[in-house]
Design goal:
Elements (H helix, E strand, L loop, with lengths): L7 E2 L1 H8 L3 H9 L6 E3 L2 E5 H16 L4
Antiparallel strand pairs: 1-3, 2-3
Length: 66
């Protein structure tokens, strides 16, 4: 899953993968929904954190939770 991305993803990568805008991507990182590291003004997101987020989202969708 997400083989085309580096192990540390960028905000732009998150936008592409999740099909969300910049504001929503930053919101997911700031509130800790997706684990990330902030280095100065840059955000780095472990690919595993994105995969974990996608799996938890798929599980909640499959259970009928909204």
């Amino acid at each position: 899953m997400l083989e085309q991305y580096e192990d540390l993803m960028t905000v732009q990568d998150i936008q592409e993968v999740l099909h969300v805008g910049k504001n929503r991507a930053y919101e997911l990182l700031r509130d800790g929904t997706i684990s990330s590291i902030r280095l100065g003004k840059s955000w780095k997101v472990p690919k595993e954190a994105v995969i974990s987020f996608l799996r938890s989202w798929q599980n909640s969708e499959g259970s009928g939770a909204r």
